Design the sequence.
């Protein structure tokens, strides 16, 4: 997905009989930061746990990001 901004999360929930969902999630924080008591990771982990609590559902969560490293001489 070339149009997907970074960082983003891919949440896949697979159920019985080839049912399932694939969610691409970009979490943008407000000017003052996240909501009190929440982080971007805790929000998507809650979605993963909520979907995974259903009988027969298996979930996968991945964070995709681009990381740069400063190289010093």
Sequence:
């Amino acid at each position: 997905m070339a149009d997907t901004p970074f960082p983003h999360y891919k949440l896949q929930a697979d159920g019985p009989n080839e049912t399932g969902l694939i969610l691409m999630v970009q979490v943008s924080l407000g000017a003052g930061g996240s909501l009190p008591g929440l982080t971007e990771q805790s929000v998507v982990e809650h979605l993963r746990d909520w979907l995974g609590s259903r009988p027969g559902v298996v979930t996968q969560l991945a964070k995709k990001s681009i990381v740069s490293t400063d190289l010093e001489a």
